[in-house]
Write a structure and sequence with these properties.
The protein is built from 14 helices and four strands. With 289 residues, it is an alpha/beta fold. It starts with 6 loop residues before the first strand and ends with a helix.
Length: 289
């Protein structure tokens, strides 16, 4: 069979990318052998992190990737380097041993495949240099619900340093030091947990994503998280066809049967976030909110 180009899923953190990826995987999309808790392929996540680090950027400050994208010499060498990396044994973490022995590199896969990572929103031009026929799905969500989710994640992250294991604090903190500092792991994402900064970061991600969509034409599709929750079966069927998956209507209905529609616009239950959204209604209207 002929090798297939990947499906690359983009969108800001907490926008529904994990939910979407899990469903597509259940319908036959190969998303990787080793995945993070957020259903991100570890191999591609590490490369995205590395790319952003070259420009002193990261998940919450990805715009610095522009310095790499604007440097034609560096951009060409970086894409060649990534292509080489995808042919080494390290790619086993994505392919798994059997697929690695058969295909050697993801570029040779003859099944629907792809990966999800919010960082793709900014590193996408480099991936398109490598996979010029790739397809892209962008999912977006109301920024106040994202802010609410990020704030909850922040509180959980900070618990690592505060309330947990008080009786063994020294030993526990030593464990955390060994685990997080050498690998430069992040305790918690701090940007975006305030409504003001969250809206700014969301706008940055939206502008970046829609710039890509405009240039990709029919090779990209965009869905609104709230629309997905409102009509999950119809939306998933459209995405399945776009991804080239052979999914039955019954299987799609099964996957979407327990969708929690109350997660749409949940911020309206928080007076502060609801007031903030009303204050900046003009900015939200630019993105159909």
């Amino acid at each position: 069979m002929k090798s297939q180009s990947p499906l690359i899923i983009i969108g800001m953190s907490r926008s529904g990318t994990s939910m979407l990826t899990r469903m597509l995987e259940s319908l036959g999309l190969f998303c990787g052998s080793r995945l993070t808790d957020n259903h991100e392929a570890l191999f591609f996540r590490e490369i995205n992190d590395w790319l952003l680090a070259q420009c002193s950027g990261g998940l919450e400050n990805p715009g610095t990737i522009k310095y790499l994208l604007q440097d034609s010499e560096a951009r060409k060498l970086f894409t060649e380097f990534i292509t080489f990396a995808m042919k080494t044994h390290r790619v086993i973490s994505y392919l798994g041993l059997v697929k690695y022995l058969n295909a050697k590199t993801p570029a040779n896969l003859d099944i629907p495949w792809g990966w999800k990572d919010p960082r793709n929103t900014y590193t996408l031009p480099l991936w398109l240099d490598i996979f010029p026929d790739a397809k892209v799905i962008h999912i977006y969500r109301h920024p106040m619900d994202i802010v609410n989710s990020l704030s909850t994640r922040r509180k959980k992250g900070l618990l690592r340093l505060s309330e947990k294991h008080r009786s063994w604090k020294g030993l526990y903190w030593y464990y955390l030091m060994q685990k997080f500092i050498p690998d430069k792991r992040v305790f918690v994402d701090l940007r975006g947990t305030s409504p003001e900064e969250g809206l700014i970061m969301w706008e940055e991600y939206m502008k970046e994503a829609r710039t890509h969509l405009k240039s990709l034409g029919k090779r990209a599709i965009e869905i609104k998280y709230e629309d997905f929750l409102d009509e999950p079966s119809a939306t998933l069927e459209t995405l399945s066809e776009f991804a080239g998956l052979e999914a039955s209507v019954d299987r799609i209905k099964e996957l979407t049967r327990d969708i929690n529609k109350s997660r749409a616009y949940a911020y309206r239950n928080e007076p502060e976030l609801k007031e903030f959204a009303e204050k900046f209604r003009d900015r939200l209207n630019e993105y159909e909110y």
